[in-house]
Amino acid sequence: MRIAVVAHAAKTLGGGLSELRRALEAEGVEDPLWYEVPKAKKATAQVQRALDEDAELIFAWGGDGTVRRCIDALAGADATLAVLPTGTANLFATNLGIPGDIQAAVAVGLRGDRRSLDVGRFEKERFAVMAGAGFDAAMIRDADDLKQRIGRAAYLWSGSRNLRRDAFGAEIVVDGSDWYEGTATCILLGNLGEIFAGVEVFPDARPDDGVLELGIVTAEGLVQWTRTLARTAAGDADRSPFVRTTKASSVKVALDRKVRYELDGGDRSKVKTFNVKVEERALSVCVPRRDEEMA
């Protein structure tokens, strides 16, 4: 089997990339295709290079941003993705039970089960965990500079700063039918259940059911957001008077002003309209074996 490694060189885990090489050699993988990138956005092109070299299994060393960039090239391809989680949140790996240990993650990649998962497509970019506009994107943007210093706590600090942001007007069409018209402070789409560190926002989400979870939040100000976040943390967001949810295979959104958006925890520019759809079972991913006998 032709194996490749695409690594965000600035990310660390255990003994770093040298330990990864040793772990692969111990498993009999002595000469993998090897591509290191200085930034996550460079990973897509390197995955495509690996595919052009007939790679069948591609290890992605990095956080959710690197994984998302790899998925951009891998969705719809014959190769399989194996994740080596080295980011701050690692939501994709956490949702799938992929361990944060080099040897264990390598074993999952080489001897784990293969699972076909849906991916979302936000305009021309794909995502595997979530996409959102409004509060979450602003929170993620403000947390970026602090993540390396204080880790996940950066999101808590940033979130508290953004609770008083003004609402925006939104019109949302789900699967061809009008679904929502009114004000919102956050529009969130999830492919997996846990989309913020330690919090399962969409408990019924399955990444292979052909639909995305869609939620809007109308909470404004500290009091309403505190109530909403408390219910979300308790796994009961649907009962909040400031939350509305549904499932969707396609979503069209029009806003009354430009709002920042994010994909898999990476902030983007501001948009006034956007379309999202599901690409069903477009991605093959290595996951822990159900019998957990990885030896």
Describe this structure as you would to a colleague:
Strand 3 (57-62), helix 3 (64-74) and strand 4 form a beta-alpha-beta unit. The protein contains eight helices and 16 strands. By secondary structure, it is an alpha+beta fold. It is elongated. Helix 2 (43-52) crosses helix 3 (64-74) and helix 6 packs antiparallel against helix 7 (153-161). The chain has helices spanning 16-26, 43-52, 64-74, 91-96, 102-111, 135-150, 153-161, 221-233, and strands at residues 3-8, 33-37, 57-62, 80-85, 113-122, 125-127, 130-134, 168-174, 177-184, 186-190, 194-196, 199-200, 212-217, 243-248, 250-263, 266-287. Strands 1, 2, 3, 4, 5, 6, 7, 8, 9, 10, 13, 14, 15 and 16 form a 14-stranded mixed sheet that branches.
Task: Name the overall outline.
Answer: elongated
Please give the count of helices. Answer: 8
> Mean pLDDT score, rounded?
87
Portion of residues in helices?
A: 25-40%
What share of the residues does DSSP label as strand, in percent?
35-45%
Order of helices and strands: EHEHEHEHHEEEHHEEEEEEHEEE
Task: Report the strand count.
Answer: 16
Quaternary organization: single chain
- Secondary-structure-based class equals alpha+beta
Task: Based on the model shown, name its key terms.
elongated, two-stranded antiparallel ribbon, 295 residues
Task: Provide a quick synopsis of the model.
This protein is α+β, with helices and mostly antiparallel strands and 295 residues long. The protein has helices at residues 16-26, 43-52, 64-74, 91-96, 102-111, 135-150, 153-161, 221-233, and strands at residues 3-8, 33-37, 57-62, 80-85, 113-122, 125-127, 130-134, 168-174, 177-184, 186-190, 194-196, 199-200, 212-217, 243-248, 250-263, 266-287. Helix content is 29%, strand content 39%.
